[in-house]
Structures are given as structure tokens and as C-alpha cells.
Design a protein that fits this description.
Elements: H1 5-8, E1 9-14, H2 16-33, E2 40-45, H3 50-58, E3 64-73, E4 84-88, E5 98-106, H4 110-121, E6 126-134, E7 147-151, E8 157-158, E9 174-177, H5 179-182
Parallel strand pairs: 2-3, 2-5, 5-6, 6-7
Antiparallel strand pairs: 1-9, 3-4, 8-9
Helix pairs in contact: 2-3
The structure holds inosinic acid (IMP) and magnesium ion.
The site of magnesium ion (MG) has 3 residues, from loops.
Family: Belongs to the purine/pyrimidine phosphoribosyltransferase family.
Keywords: Coiled coil, Cytoplasm, Glycosyltransferase, Magnesium, Metal-binding, Nucleotide-binding, Purine salvage, Transferase
GO molecular function: guanine phosphoribosyltransferase activity; hypoxanthine phosphoribosyltransferase activity; magnesium ion binding; nucleotide binding
Length: about 180
């Protein structure tokens, strides 16, 4: 069955061309920043970051390895941060390495805050964050990404890796999900 876009998407927020252009610019900034380093470890957070990771990595000129982690933040209602449940861990030792966490979107900031601390504890030389999207209005934990693709309003978006109930990750643009779909 084909996806009927008109039934699920309110508006295309960022089209494919704008995404790719912006990601190229971000890659240039990353290249400049790590210019004098021998190696960079890109850590993509599954599954949302896959498209961004792939597009970004194509324009990275520094020697790099592509790693993935799958995490979820604990939501026990009392502790708001500091804990991250690792569902799939890194396959490599990152001690002494330059690590760049590649994320699809920062919302409350809980996941990234916990993850960053956990990677610093493992002895990474540096841990930076690059995110395709940022919803600053929704922040609960104060965390600032080092590089951001686009700041977006507080709307639920899908596509380019982002899902609603695991669907729509394959759409080549970022679109606002119709409220009827999830309300
Ligand atoms: P947080 O910053 O810990 O709240 O978690 C951010 C995660 O929530 C992201 O990595 C996404 O997986 C998910 N998320 C937040 N906002 C959206 C959205 O608008 N669309 C799809 N996923 C989202
Ligand atoms: Mg995610």
C-alpha cells in the first residue's frame, strides 16, 4: 500500500534540496573544526539519524569511522536525567578519540545529556553534538548542540529518518505530521 502523503502531512517544513544544502554546510564546519585531528568517530543515534548520518558523512573529509548506538532515556517520573538505557552499544573503544554524536532532533534534551555524560566517562578526548533539527521550546535539560541544521517550532515532524510509530522515516523531506494522525 502506498503512503497517501496528503492524509498524513500538513506541510513540508524542509524540502530535500534545502536539507542537503544545509548538511553540506554543516559538514564544512565540522571539517574545519577537526582539521588538525587524525581521526573522528561519528556516533549516529538509531534509528532517527540514519539519513542525516549518511548525507553528512559523504562530505566529511577527516578520516572517520561510522558507529551507531541505540538508546532510550529512562522515564521513571522522578529522575529527569542522568540515565540512559543502552539498547545497542558501540563496538569500539572510544578512549582518547574525538567523538561526534549525530542526532536527528533534540527535544527535551534528556537523551543527549545522559548519552554525552556516558561517552565522556568512557574517556573520549572530546564529545561534541551535531543535530539536524532542534526544538528549543521543548527543552527540559539545558543542552546546547555544537552544530544545528535547523531550529524548528514545536510541531511533531516526520521524514528524513524521523518516525511516527516507526513509519515515515523514508520520506525524503521533513514534514509536519497532521494532528488527526496522532490525536
Ligand atoms: P529528547 O531530546 O530526549 O526528548 O529525545 C529526542 C528524541 O525524541 C529524538 O531523538 C526523536 O527520536 C524523538 N522526537 C522528538 N521530537 C520528535 C518529532 O517531532 N518527530 C519524531 N521524533 C521526535
Ligand atoms: Mg532519536
Amino acid at each position: 500500500m502506498k503512503t497517501d502523503l496528503e492524509e498524513i502531512i500538513d506541510q513540508v517544513l524542509i524540502d530535500e534540496e534545502s536539507l542537503n544544502k544545509r548538511i553540506k554546510k554543516l559538514a564544512n564546519q565540522v571539517n574545519e573544526y577537526y582539521e588538525d585531528k587524525n581521526e573522528l568517530v561519528l556516533v549516529g543515534i538509531l534509528k532517527g539519524s540514519i539519513m542525516f548520518m549518511a548525507q553528512l558523512a559523504k562530505s566529511i573529509k577527516i578520516n572517520c569511522t561510522l558507529e551507531f548506538m541505540d538508546v532510550s532515556s529512562y522515564e521513571d517520573g522522578t529522575e529527569s536525567s542522568g540515565n540512559v538505557k543502552i539498547i545497542k552499544d558501540l563496538d569500539t573503544d572510544i578512549s582518547g578519540k574525538e567523538v561526534l554524536i549525530v542526532e536527528d532532533i533534540i527535544d527535551t534534551g534528556r537523551t543527549l545529556d545522559a548519552l554525552r555524560h556516558s561517552l565522556i566517562k568512557r574517556g573520549a578526548n572530546s564529545v561534541k553534538i551535531i543535530t539536524l533539527l532542534d526544538k528549543p521550546e521543548r527543552r527540559v535539560i539545558e543542552i546546547k548542540p555544537d552544530w544545528t541544521g535547523f531550529k524548528i517550532p514545536n510541531e511533531f515532524v516526520v521524514g528524513y529518518g524521523l518516525d511516527y510509530q516507526q513509519k515515515y522515516r523514508n520520506l525524503p523531506f521533513i514534514g509536519v505530521l497532521k494532528r488527526e494522525v496522532y490525536e
